[in-house]
């Protein structure tokens, strides 16, 4: 019975998360990022309150965590619906649209989003097989310490993608110059944040992980975060300009190159500190390829393809929610 209850609680958490994330993406499309912060905070506070009450009344279980997450997402779902721009708060009848276009675009984007987690998983397995689990633990602890900079870059990339999509009618050279400026800002900001984290490593590293961290492993992961900051705007711009398949191809190539380079370095007796260096090298090469081989080539923005996915009845409300 407990297993079924846990499975049901997990299913509730997943369904509410997906529904809430749809509205988050809609807010993101309107560049309402501060509203998204409010939505996420509401989910966090509701979940935390439920866990606090449950902990006061008895021991916490896995089902309790799933139910708390589901309840938090459910509360955030209603708040997100209320924070949507008024012209988005309606339900329309099912209409025939560009399902194929949306599915193709979404499939390529989803595949691309899965590359980095797959690369990191492959990296952990490689280090574990060649060097050992102890080295894997050290590498992962340093990555966790550097994770805030990766989250920082990931959050800004969401803003860049939405802003590039909004400005899709602008000429490509103008958008490319904007991407270059964002790369410079992101790289400087990431280096600055990484420098602060390295400076407080002796104190904060032990607080976060419970033991001392290798400073060069941390430097390597901060370098990897900086490489992500240097290439993310180009990938976002290329995807907005309908080159998502080409972006996936280059990202797959640089991920394969990174993992191969790490395997060679470890097999030749190199230390585990070379692993984030290998990932950084591959990431930078992939970003440069997107910048010079995809975005430098002229290609149409294909506004007519976008238009086919939008119903002429888009602004007609059927029922307010």
Distance between the termini: 37 Å
Morphology: globular
Strand order in the largest sheet: 1-2
Main structural class: mainly alpha
Strand content: under 5%
Q: Calculate the mean pLDDT score and round it.
A: 84
Q: How many separate domains?
A: 2
Query: What share of residues is helical?
Result: over 70%
Which blocks of ≥5 consecutive residues have pLDDT under 50? Answer: 300-321
Radius of gyration: 22 Å
Largest sheet: 2 strands, antiparallel
Give the ordered list of helices and strands: HHHEHHHHHHHHHE
For the secondary structure, the number of strands is 2
Describe this structure as you would to a colleague.
The structure is a single chain. The protein is an all-alpha fold and 321 residues long. The protein has 2 domains: 2-86; 109-296, no CATH class. Helices cover 79% and strands 1% of the residues. It has helices spanning 2-29, 33-57, 62-83, 99-113, 115-130, 133-166, 172-199, 201-209, 215-240, 244-267, 274-294, 303-308, and strands spanning 90-91, 319-320. Strands 1-2 form a two-stranded antiparallel sheet. Helix 6 runs parallel beside helix 9 (215-240) and helix 9 (215-240) runs parallel beside helix 11 (274-294). The longest helix has 34 residues, at 133-166.
């Amino acid at each position: 019975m407990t297993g079924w209850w846990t499975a049901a609680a997990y299913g509730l958490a997943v369904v509410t998360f997906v529904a809430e994330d749809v509205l988050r993406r809609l807010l993101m499309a309107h560049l309402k990022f501060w509203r998204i912060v409010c939505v996420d905070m509401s989910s966090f506070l509701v979940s935390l309150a439920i866990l606090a009450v449950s902990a006061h009344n008895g021991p916490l279980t896995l089902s309790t965590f799933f139910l708390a997450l589901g309840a938090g997402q459910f509360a955030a779902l209603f708040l997100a619906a209320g924070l949507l721009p008024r012209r988005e708060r309606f339900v329309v009848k099912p209409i025939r649209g560009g399902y194929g276009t949306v599915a193709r675009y979404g499939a390529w984007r989803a595949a691309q989003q899965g590359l980095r987690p797959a690369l990191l998983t492959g990296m952990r397995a490689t280090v574990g097989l060649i060097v050992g689990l102890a080295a894997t633990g050290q590498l992962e602890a340093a990555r966790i310490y550097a994770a805030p900079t990766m989250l920082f870059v990931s959050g800004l990339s969401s803003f860049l993608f939405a802003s590039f999509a909004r400005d899709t009618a602008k000429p490509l050279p103008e958008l490319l110059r904007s991407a270059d400026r964002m790369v410079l800002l992101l790289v400087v900001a990431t280096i600055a944040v990484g420098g602060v984290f390295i400076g407080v490593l002796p104190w904060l590293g032990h607080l976060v992980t419970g033991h001392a961290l290798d400073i060069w492993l941390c430097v390597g992961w901060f370098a990897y975060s900086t490489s992500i900051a240097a290439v993310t705007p180009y990938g976002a711009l290329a995807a907005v300009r309908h080159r998502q398949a080409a972006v996936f191809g280059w990202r797959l190539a640089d991920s394969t190159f990174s993992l191969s380079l790490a395997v060679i370095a470890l097999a030749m007796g190199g230390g585990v500190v070379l692993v984030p260096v290998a990932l950084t090298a591959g990431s930078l090469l992939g970003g440069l390829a997107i910048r010079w081989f995809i975005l430098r080539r002229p290609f149409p923005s294909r506004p007519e393809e976008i238009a086919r996915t939008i119903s002429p009845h888009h602004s007609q409300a059927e029922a307010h929610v």
